[in-house]
Amino acid sequence: MKLHQSYFACSFVFAFAFARPTTVSIHSYGSLLKREVPQEHSHEKFLTTVRASLALNNPAGISDPVFGLLGNAAAAKGQGSIADTDCLQQATADQAFTNAKTAGNVNGMTAALVYRALERNSGTVGGVSAACTSIKAINPEIAAITQHQDPASANAATTNKAVTLALAKQIASVGGDPQTAIQSGTFAPGSAADKTGKGNTCDDANDSEGCIFTQKLLVPDVTAAEIDATVGSASTVGGSSNAAVKAPASTDSLKVAGNTTSTMAASDTSNMGSKSSTGKAGKAGKGKNGGKVDKAGMSGKSNTTAVNADDAAQNDKAATSGALGLGSCSDPTIQFGPGFDGRKEDSFQPVNQKDFNHGSALNSGVITGFICQQLMDKCKASGDALSACAKGQQAAAEATGQAAANAFNAAFAR
After folding, report:
1. Dihedral, CA atoms, 157, 214, 408, 65, nearest 10 degrees?
2. Which residue, among 107, 80, 82, has the nearest Cα to 96 in the 3D structure?
3. pLDDT, tens digit, for every residue of 327-375?
4. Which of 98, 116, 252, 272 has the most CB atoms around it within 10 Å of its CB?
5. Are 303 and 330 in contact (CB under 8 A)?
6. pLDDT of residue 59 exceeding 70
7. Whole-angstrom Cα distance, residue 124 to residue 80?
């Protein structure tokens, strides 16, 4: 990974305050006001998802996933109790993966795997970042992956292709879409004569998708056909997964580093290509909703589905409003406009602050993801309601401003 000297932009700090309050210490970033800034936000959607998973349980006190992608001098300021800075990226991915696995969040596990494979700051164009040798990952899926190397380094094409194919296998093993591994790739090779160290990179903390994607700078290491050939039958979602899939743990008040999010928010806003599936409960088909949940990273079998048929039937009886069966809650819609929480810019917030108590955010996915999570954990909404929410969240992610709010709200119209 390349880097260049720059003053830390104020907008970067503010980006971590977009959803209030934050659990990441601004001081951790403030101490790096004058530092070397690489491309740590180029794959932002994966950092957002890993950040949400890490926040569920972070015993090592890692400040933020972004530190794992920095050079050692900067990374050390956020490594918490991790003893070896060369292993910070792996340790972050390992803990996030553990948390996502416990929550039954396939997209969370996928993001942790992709994060482990991202290129890390090497200090110079063509430099190689050190491997983690002193700490063994708890999860074998994480242990099977190493990070991409600077594309201008020796044998980078071969090395990075191997990393991506190994990643694809591990994503398939947990029930994710192995083609997502392509998104772990890096930029076109820079020139060793470039003394700035920047190379062909981008870095934008405010690009929720990731500037490497929105600016179309990613250079794939492999083809889709190569992944299919490598993964084989494991490419079928759930085909070889040994991950326990169950309803995600409640994250009612999870507010993290600029994207107040949740396990469901992470699942549906990261556009990681996970394949949707339908949970088959023990009594599926007998209840009104049959336990069907779509695109929410909550697929499973037997009694491990996020919403089984019995729960769905019970939720329908308890519904207080709406044909969808919103459980104990009402009005899950969102609004877009100025002045929320004293903001000068337009932002999103829930209309119903009683059932969905959350501050405003600039990214619709922050709010829609929170609402979908609340519908499942707090409201005990029906499977149809959860499916509608997930679809609405995806529709909102494909629009902006008032159109995004309208798209989400339309999913609940009956």
Report:
1. 60
2. 107
3. 999 999 999 999 998 888 899 999 999 999 888 888 888 789 889 888 9
4. 116
5. no
6. yes
7. 26
